[in-house]
Amino acid sequence: MTEAVLLVGGKGTRLQPLTLNTPKPMVPAAGVPFLAHQLARARAAGVEHIVLATSYLAEVFEPYFGDGSAYGLRLTYVTEDQPLGTGGAIRGAAEALTTRPDEPVLVFNGDILTGLDIPALLRRHERAQADVTLHLTRVADPRAYGLVPTAPDGRVLAFTEKPRHPDEIVTDQINAGCYVFRREVIDTIPAGRPVSVERETFPGLLDGGALLHGLVDASYWLDLGRPASFIQASADLVRGIVRSPAVPGEPGEHLVLPGAHVEPGARLAGGTVVGAGARVGAGAEITGSVVLDGARIEAGARIRASMIGNAARVGPRTVLDGAVIGDHAEIGADNELREGARVWCGTAIPDAAIRFGAA
Ligand code: GTP
């Protein structure tokens, strides 16, 4: 039986205000909490038991996902009273696993969308007889990530977390947030104190002579930590650019959930999703965006690459481009909010009050 640990306890500060009331893995992408896509993908790869390592807003996961049987999985919840970091969370969650010491355990960050061939990662781990095998991906600008150079045979040579100096940028391969650990290696992570797997565990294992392997995989990969990438991921799921069995519909230019109402003459494109009970007025144009449940988009609004929170309202003719609108916020008519604009939950903006970042 293949078991996995899914890390879902982070505060998701970069995604605020969306993560003030909802933990990042529960924010909807393509109509369902993002976590549902990860569970479905893990199940499709043959994983049968997943331990969810929760901390921030931990209480919301189990009421939604229950024992996992609806997803064809067994789910167990392990909660840290104080966040223990990625390594501490893996160590704590592993207590709930039944995997034998010499068998592999999968570990997933809860905020990565990827088309990775998970069985191929497991096969590489077995073939290399590695202590840990990491999924690596190549990015154009690796500075915001953990760099992982490898030897031609895949052996990891070093870990450089978020390099500051140009000399440190020795590769474009980065830690993609999915690992296979030999079970007994997890038991060497100190228990009961915060540990970063990226900054402490992996470099420590390497220094201690452990065998770490990296599998560079060129399939779809996106880190959903920032609003722009979260919105992009949702649109890519809706359009089928990356496939998830959890998307509630066929791939297409838009996804309108049951109970939403879109007036004739409104235009939805670019993988836009409109949540349950949301309303879109006549002549509104929404491209590549996420409209959450119960939101109201008034007539003639133009929205691109934005996220509209639960029960928020966007007034007539208002333009949003790269904006994040918190739950229950009210944006009046004829406003213009562009790149990076974030409106906090419950905020009210009067008519024609803002032209943010307009050309
Ligand atoms: P930011 O605050 O925006 O950096 O997001 P984050 O809190 O999610 O941190 P980060 O993106 O570095 O976390 C990577 C993954 O590890 C995410 O899936 C987090 O949910 C998870 N994670 C981070 N810290 C903890 C922790 O202390 N406990 C648990 N259980 N999970 C964590």
Blueprint of the fold:
Elements: E1 2-7, E2 28-29, E3 32-33, H1 34-44, E4 47-54, H2 61-65, E5 74-79, H3 85-94, E6 104-109, E7 112-114, H4 118-128, E8 132-138, E9 146-147, E10 160-161, E11 173-182, H5 183-186, H6 197-207, E12 212-216, E13 221-223, H7 227-239, E14 254-256, E15 261-262, E16 267-269, E17 272-274, E18 279-280, E19 285-287, E20 290-291, E21 296-297, E22 302-304, E23 307-308, E24 313-314, E25 319-321, E26 324-325, E27 330-331, E28 336-337, E29 342-343, E30 348-349, E31 355-356
Parallel strand pairs: 1-4, 1-6, 4-5, 8-12, 14-17, 15-18, 16-19, 17-20, 18-21, 19-22, 20-23, 21-24, 22-25, 23-26, 24-27, 25-28, 26-29, 27-30, 28-31
Antiparallel strand pairs: 2-3, 6-11, 7-13, 8-11, 9-10
The structure holds guanosine-5'-triphosphate.
The site of guanosine-5'-triphosphate (GTP) has 22 residues, from β4 and α3.
